Amino acid sequence: MAKNFRGRSLLTLLDLKAEDVRYLLDLAHMLKAERLAGQFQQRFRGRTLAMLFEKRSTRTRCAFETAFGEEGGCPVFLSSSDIQLGAKESIEDTARVLGRMFDCIMFRGFEQATVDKLAEYSGVPVFNGLTDLYHPTQVLADLMTIEESLGDVAGLDFVYAGDGRNNMANSLMIGSALMGMNCTVLAPEELHPEGKLVETVRGLAERSGAEIRITSDLETAVEGANVIYTDVWASMGEEEQMKERIALLEPYRVDAEMLEQTGNPDVLFMHCLPAVKGNEVTFDVIEGPSSVVWDEAENRKHTIKALMVASLL
């Protein structure tokens, strides 16, 4: 295991260096190959994982639970209706209690401050399974999926089309910058990413040789792209804004014409899921030959397992 990763949390990809991401991806590729070869280990035997959910989930819950269980560990699902997190008990006190009973904690919810406090007060590794600001474990799976299809991500041209200030746009910019992949965020001006984060990400990109571009120009944004990525137009908790988002984002829908505009017959389509087919992406694209969304979904498990192996062993 990497000497510098044991005991570490992952709250945002800003916590990592390029060599950390590289190590986690290499480990994930190894663990996936091991699983496909029918080699079953019990690395987490006798260990426990607390899984805290404020937001419901398919891929995040299944990935953490199966990854930990396959390795012989005991994952415990705890929704906000099951425990006192932030209700009758402070986040700090909940963290202290869970840290005494569990070897690690994952959190999927709203505020980044919650997962930060869990890490500060629990004394055990904490993994961010999604907050309103960041979704780091998803981007690890995204990078793994791109590597499986296209090889080294450095120098590739990646385009994210849609809501440019959500957790996926934030995290994809960071992951791209760390790994030397050019990243274009294609979004209406009202939904461009937060300026301070863009400045931080461009600082990372200077070191890796990547280019980070923020644009609303549909004519030029996707030309030569290797990957087109999108996400739902209204994240969990923003459903009441859907009419406004549709009006803003309809021109940025990923369809066959957008893929053709890349000029790249081998362009990949990616989506973190769940998808609203007909909104952010057309049915023919997500179900078509360019789509790698199901590989991407599977790779959540392998990258999450790699993260926990690196942190716990």
Give a summary of the structure in a few sentences:
The protein is an alpha/beta fold and 313 residues long. It is built from eleven helices and nine strands. The chain is globular, with a radius of gyration of 19 Å.
Task: Describe it.
- By secondary structure, this protein is α/β, with parallel strands linked by helices.
- Helices cover 42% and strands 14% of the residues.
- It has 11 helices and 9 strands.
- The chain has helices spanning 18-36, 59-70, 91-101, 112-122, 136-150, 167-179, 195-208, 242-249, 256-261, 283-286, 293-312; strands at residues 48-53, 74-79, 104-108, 126-130, 157-161, 182-186, 212-215, 227-230, 268-271.
- It has a 5-stranded parallel sheet.
- Helix 5 crosses helix 11 (293-312).
- The longest helix has 20 residues, at 293-312.
- It is globular.
- The termini are close together.
- The mean pLDDT is 95.
Report on the biggest sheet.
Answer: 5 strands, parallel
Number of strands: 9
What is the overall number of helices?
11
**Globular, elongated, flat, extended or rod-shaped: what is the shape?**
globular
Strand numbers in spatial order across the main sheet: 7-6-5-8-9
Mean pLDDT: 95
Report the β-strand fraction as a percent range: 5-15%
Instruction: Output the structural class.
Output: alpha/beta
Order of helical and strand elements? HEHEHEHEHEHEHEEHHEHH
Low-confidence stretches: none
Distance between the termini: 7 Å
Query: Radius of gyration, Cα only, in angstroms?
Result: 19 Å
